[in-house]
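Write out this protein's structure.
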Amino acid sequence: PLANLDPPVLDRIHRLQELHEAQQRILYTDYLRDRAALEDEYNRRLDTFYQQRLLIVSGQDSILSQERQEGIPQFWLSVLTRHNVTAQAIEEDDLECLTYLTNISCYTRIDGFALTFDFEENPYFANPQLVKDYTVPNLWLPHEPLLQSVQGCTIDWHTNNLSMHTVTKKQ
């Protein structure tokens, strides 16, 4: 117990606590602000590559020829189903819908990130984009990120609502 310590030792412990609190203030304010700014800078620098990837994947790049190319069919479906984390989240009913996915982009911020999924016209929903926002307050801190909340946009479903399943029971 602290009460049993000599006053000079107790004073040093209090000074160490104050020092630690000052360090944490720097970490949680300056570091997070500076890291977010650095992330923004690199995201802007990498945006050119993402735009080039989109053109190549969609067949709109003029590098190969002047003719409209098919691009890389089902590129994002292939990427998502081959990644060990996303593949686990994809259900069999999602596969056909994901063939209409044309691009995925990510916007990061100090307290999380948002994923934007671009779709071509499809029989499942009218939205050209679906956005999913993740709040992760400790995203840039050195310890394990903790997901606080996830917010998806409203989906304007056509008749093929993938989130609804009909269950029929035999009597």
